[in-house]
Specification:
Two copies of one chain form a homodimer.
Chain A: E1 3-4, H1 8-11, E2 22-28, H2 41-55, E3 59-64, H3 66-75, E4 81-84, H4 92-95, E5 98-101, E6 107-113, H5 119-122, H6 129-141, E7 145-153, E8 159-161, E9 166-170, H7 171-174, H8 185-196, E10 200-204, E11 221-225, E12 228-233, H9 240-254, E13 264-269, E14 274-275, H10 278-282, E15 298-299, E16 307-308, E17 312-317, H11 322-333, E18 338-343, H12 345-348, E19 358-362
Parallel strand pairs in A: 1-7, 2-3, 3-4, 6-7, 9-10, 12-13, 17-18
Antiparallel strand pairs in A: 2-19, 5-6, 8-9, 11-12, 14-15, 16-17
Chain lengths: ~375, ~375
Amino acid sequence: MKILSSVPKNDGFFMPAEFEKHYGCIIIWPERADSWQYGAVMARKAFTEVAKAIAQSEKVTVLASDAAYDTAREMLPDYIRVVEMTSNDSWARDYAPTFLKNKKGIIRGVDWGFNAWGGLVDGLYFPWDKDNRIARKICDLYETDIYNVRDFILEGGSFHVDGQGTVITTEACLLSRGRNPEMTKNEIEEKLKNYIGAEKVIWLKRGIYNDETNEHIDNICAFAAPGEVVLAWCDDKNDPQYEMSKECLDILEKETDAKGRKFKIYKIPQPQPVFMTDYECEGLINFNGEPTRTGGERLAASYVNFYISNGAVIIPGFNDENDVKAKNIFQNIFKDREVIQIYARDILIGGGNIHCITQQIPISKQ
Amino acid sequence: MKILSSVPKNDGFFMPAEFEKHYGCIIIWPERADSWQYGAVMARKAFTEVAKAIAQSEKVTVLASDAAYDTAREMLPDYIRVVEMTSNDSWARDYAPTFLKNKKGIIRGVDWGFNAWGGLVDGLYFPWDKDNRIARKICDLYETDIYNVRDFILEGGSFHVDGQGTVITTEACLLSRGRNPEMTKNEIEEKLKNYIGAEKVIWLKRGIYNDETNEHIDNICAFAAPGEVVLAWCDDKNDPQYEMSKECLDILEKETDAKGRKFKIYKIPQPQPVFMTDYECEGLINFNGEPTRTGGERLAASYVNFYISNGAVIIPGFNDENDVKAKNIFQNIFKDREVIQIYARDILIGGGNIHCITQQIPISKQ
């Protein structure tokens, strides 16, 4: 594995869209006692269902620390690979490498800086050193070279691409004080373009209400195809999410992508607000007396936090009346893929959802 | 990775000889404070030289714990892959899987039981649980299935094969009280044949003097080609090694291999006796007050503890007058491979040598 100091865009490397063909997918096994209630048992069951759904159509590798390795190997079916790797938590989307390719089909990773969603300003845990080493470890595992851009703080869940030059992101996250406060919006935009290999960045203002990642894009809006996006939508004007989603819609309706296309926008209804229970909070072991959750806290539930595998679209379910409605909309959008809905409350209460716990690897020859 | 309970021989799987074509080689990064003096710095340099020599002609993967990972990645060149994996020590030969193949070129591993060279009878450390999990982790990493024979204690360094039905081993090791005391010699022989896919086992009596592995075969005798063996040899009748090597020679001269061939035997001179120094002992941190070495202790040095890579034969050197002599003999035997001699005192004082720290993976299609 070579660590590269050149700029991907200059080298002809860009990030393909998630809906393009994958080699496989990486998931990190949940373990952290202040993220995953009651020994992560229910979270591990949910992660296993996600891994199995993805493994129907692409290779899945689950990374687990030595301490948690045996539970992963026991719970996951034998067609899913388990590889030992230590991290601080289980968010492959945010700190596994962003994978790029070039026209020859060569794959390379990007090693962004990671500071647990805001570092000492408003980050979610400390330390985050092991997360920050994961990208290089993964590229070494897959024998791909990696671009070093650790001086720029970015999580994989904070941007989406269409693979044709367009990036979408949120100002709430990328302009947050805890990430790159010394950089201007223009400088951040240039970094994105250079390291994802893109032409145009579309800035939405905000994401999902109470999303502790500073409102990652991947919880509110995603590309379904070039020129097509799904948007988490709320009809209840008394819900703070209404204004947030409406603002996104207004921007998207006026914008064009890097190829000059207007967007086709699919509204995905939000589930009813989901709240953390006292029982769930009591299942967390908090370090240094700092509770990560409180009973009654609203969680950032959204169907838009989904993963596109080669053969399926894997979306969360919340035992909500909108589960079926959301599934039907996704099935109408992704006509060639099976929509698999997985009950995901046990992922959500860790702080993310299906997209957050996955990271696709593009196929090397197309 | 499937865990198989069938018998490799019945499935058409057998262990190819080390001199046949490899896919690659596994090495485990040294770390253990009671095995490797002074923070394993010198050992890591020696391991790096071995890895580099092998990587000239086959893929090398070095396994390192999370704690030692950064030193491995820093010291090893970027063309050598480093993968996180936890073990109790660094003897890939003894507890990485034994790799088998079948006529179609499919590769499978064997997961022998491991108890640190004698368990609670005369083993070298406790616990050995992480070593014992390495074989499955490695097979999962390489996406090969694995035969489960953990009820039989065996280390990879305690047998050699010619890939044509012949196994050589030592009675001192395989009949030791600390391994499979409840089994008869015949039963042990059957296990070997069934799980290595062989026809004939040749039993030498002993190995190298003061070899704490209970005298592994891979320190005294190895196949150089079908029908050809190298034997560690000692001309000094006052040295206890003289009788030990002579006894091996007598057996080998009378024996035939599985194909009925007499052996061509190459004698490799031993280096002058090598002793542990007080300074080296003081560089060890002993657990529970149990010293692993004492100053003046004779180490089991031998040139026969070598590795055959696709393009080279990598042999140890000891700054001894016989270094060049040994190298010339090896070069005469292996005419198509470069003989690379690496100063290996810093591996030897950990308790083994170049063969002990390596494990080849056969090539899957031939």
